[in-house]
Structure formats: structure tokens, C-alpha cells
Amino acid sequence: MKVYFIGAGPGAADLITLRGSRLLGTAPMVLYAGSLVPAEMLSHCRPDAEIHDTAELNLDQQEALYRRAQAEDKDVARLHSGDPAIYGATNEQMRRLEALGIAYEVVPGVSSFTAAAAALSSELTRPEVSQSIILTRTSGRASAVPETESIASFAAHRATMCIFLSGQRLKQTVADLALHYPPTTPVALVRRASWPDQSVHRSTLGKMLDEVKQKDWLLTTLLLVGEALSREGGVESSLYAAGFTHIFRDGDDRKTKRASLQKEKQA
């Protein structure tokens, strides 16, 4: 018997990994976070799977299901939204499984921050603009953010930031960002990335609050900010430049040098 923590992806039923889909198709018991994972994702499950929505269950009740699956020698697929490693609430489950002597495995998934970048058709890292991505969230009742990881302190780096759960504290989040980012900095709100009702709003840090109604962005909203989101030119990466040499390809300069050495040898 084994528990598989499977990243369900950001929402679209076809953004689960092949491995995750295969395991869902074989697991006799499935636990899924119904508040964040769409019901369409359950189409990957076997027809006779026993399915439980964990949005209605506390941790003790979930453990009881793991215990029963252990007694019945049934594998369990535990579906978490996005990737289980990011705000997955998996650590406490894993500790209980270890105490019960139940083996488990993690299957990674597509995170909502990468789905949001895809919705924006944006690369979050750009040469000489930003080579770092900060993933963080606003503080909430279920899990407070440490003071040392405040949005204002991260903003000082002026890197690309992807802020989860930002909708409910949009005004304060923008105020914290404005301590370090210029008002012209590109920003984007993405709600329910990859879902059929996905919403996207692009703007700048100084204008966004005047353009949106906070009530429209309360749940499952990501705020992305940083110069990397700009559509304007910038420096191209050297990776595919004609003159750039790496272990898989000679640049023009090296090709010319090799040709010259070859001619010298033949002379």
C-alpha cells in the first residue's frame, strides 16, 4: 500500500503529468482538494474509484482514510492543486504517514505561477533585467507569513515576484511593492489560471488599483510584478547568438578559427 501525492496542476484537466494521470487511473482510493482542484480532473480516475473531497475533512479524518486504506491494502492518490511542494500542506500528512509506517511518493505538477506566466505569454526571467523569481504569498489565517519574509522586504530586490493569495489584500500588497518598485513597473493579475473562466489584467503598479475592483479578484489570484513582464525590447540572451560557443555548438568565431587551422594543416 502506498500514498501518491500528485500535483494536479493549476486547473486545466490536461495539465496534469502523464505519471500523475496514470497513477490516478489505477488508484482505488482518491483524495482531492475540491476547493482548488476542478471536478474535471477526476476524469483521470478509474471508474470504480472511491473518491473523497478533502475540503470537507480535517486532518484527523483524512488520516482515518489512510488507516483504512492501509488495512485494506489499497493505494491512495492524494491530489493537490498545482505542485505539492508549493503551499501543498503535505508535510503534516507525511509525518502522520511515517508514524503509521505507510510509504508515500510525490509526483510533481505544473504550478499556477507557471500557468499564469503562460497566460501572459511572458518569460519571468530576462537577461540584464531579472534572473530571479520570488514566490511568496500574503499572510492568512491558516498560515501566517514570517515577518522576515514580508512582501516589502522581498520587493527591495526588484526581482520578478509571483504573489499567491494576493486578491484579498490587494491594496496593502501594492503599497508594500511600491516601497521599492517604480510606479511604471509592469504588473499582472491572473485569476484561476488555465481554468475555463480564467481572468487576466495587465497594468502598471501605479495604475492597477484604479482599473480593477478588488471583489473581482478575491480568490485564487496571483499578482505578478517586475520589469521582466514588459513587452518592450531588451537584451537578447547569448544562448542562441551566432557568435556564442558552448559544448553543443561552435559559434561563428570558433568555426572561422577551426577553418583557418585546417587550411594551415593542409598547406
Automatic annotation (TrEMBL):
Keyword field: Cobalamin biosynthesis, Methyltransferase, S-adenosyl-L-methionine, Transferase
Alphabetical list of PROSITE patterns matching this protein: SUMT_1 (PS00839), SUMT_2 (PS00840)
GO MF term list: precorrin-4 C11-methyltransferase activity
EC number: 2.1.1.133
Residue ranges of every copy of the Tetrapyrrole methylase domain listed in the record: 2-207
Pathway: Cofactor biosynthesis; adenosylcobalamin biosynthesis
Protein's name in the database: Precorrin-4 C(11)-methyltransferase
Family: Belongs to the precorrin methyltransferase family.
CDD domains named in the record: Precorrin-4_C11-MT
Gene Ontology process terms (BP): methylation
Organism: Chromobacterium piscinae
InterPro entries, per the entry: 4pyrrol_Mease (IPR000878), 4pyrrol_Methylase_sf (IPR035996), 4pyrrole_Mease_sub1 (IPR014777), 4pyrrole_Mease_sub2 (IPR014776), Cbl_synth_CobM/CibF (IPR006362), Siro_Cobalamin_biosynth (IPR050161), Uropor_MeTrfase_CS (IPR003043)
